Amino acid sequence: MGARETVEITGHLMDSGILSRVLDDIRDYGADFVLEQFDVGHEAHDPSSARITVQADDDASLQRLLMRLQTRGVNQLGHADATLAVADRAGVLPDGFYSTTDLETRVRLDGEWYDVENPEMDCGLVVDESPSGGPRVRTVPISDVVRGMRVVVGAAGVRVTPPDSRPAGGSTALPQAGTVAERPQAVLVRQVADGMREARSSGRRLLWVAGAAVVHAGGVPPLAALVRAGWVDVLFAGNAMATTDIEAALRGPAAEGAVSTPDAEHGHEHRVRSVNTIRRAGSVAAAVRDGVLVSGVMHALVTHGKPFVLVGSVRDDGLLPDVHTDVVEGRRAMRAEVRDVGYCLMMAAQRHAVATCTILPASVPLVCVDIDPATVTRLTDRGAGQSRGIVTDVGLFLEQLALELVADYRRG
Question: Starting at the edge strand that comes first in sequence, how are the strands of the sheet with 48-56 ordered?
Answer without folding.
Answer: 32-39, 48-56, 3-11, 75-76
